Amino acid sequence: MTDPRSAQADALMGELQRQGAGRLTIFLGAAPGVGKTYTMLGRARELQRRGIDVVVAIVETHGRAETSALVEGLDVLPRKRLDYQGRTLEEMDLDAVLARKPKVALVDELAHRNAPGSRHERRWQDVLELLDAGIDVYTTINIQHLESLNDVIHRITGVRVSETVPDALFDRLRDIVLVDLPPRELIERLQQGKVYVPEQAAHALQAFFSPSNLTALRELAMQTAADRVDSDLREAQTARGLPGVPLRRAVMVAIDGLGQSEYLVRVARRIAERRDSPWIVVTVHTGGAPDEARQSELDRAFALARRLGGEAVVLHGNSIVDALLDHGERAGVSTIVLGRTRERPLARMINRTLTQQLIQRGAHYELTIVSTPEARAKARRSMRDNGSRLRGLLNRSDAALAVVAATLATALAWAAERWIGLDDLSLIFIVAVVVVAARTRMTAAVIASVLCFLAYNFFFIEPRFTFEIGASQGVATVVLFLAAALVAGRLASKLRMQVLALRASNAHATELQSLGRELSTAADVGQVVRAGRNALKRSLGAEAFVYIGAAPLRGEQLPEMNDKDRAAADWSLKHRQSAGRYTDTLAGSDWWLLPLKGAGSNDAPAAGVVGLRFPTSLTRLGAEQRRLAEAMTDDVAQAILRTRLVADLEDSRVSGETERLRSALLSSVSHDLRSPLASIIGAASSLDNYAEAMPREDRHALLETIRIEGERLDRYIQNLLDMTRLGHGGLALNRDWIGVDELIGSAVTRLQRYEPGARFEVRLQPGLGPIWVHPALIEQALFNVIENAVKFSPPDTPVSIDARRVDNEPGAQPEQVLRIDVSDRGPGIPEDERARIFDMFYSVERGDRGRQGTGLGLAICQGMIGAHGGNVVALPGQPDAQGRRGTTIRITLPPIEPEPAAAP
Question: Does the keyword Aminoacyl-tRNA synthetase apply (predicted)?
Answer without folding.
Answer: no
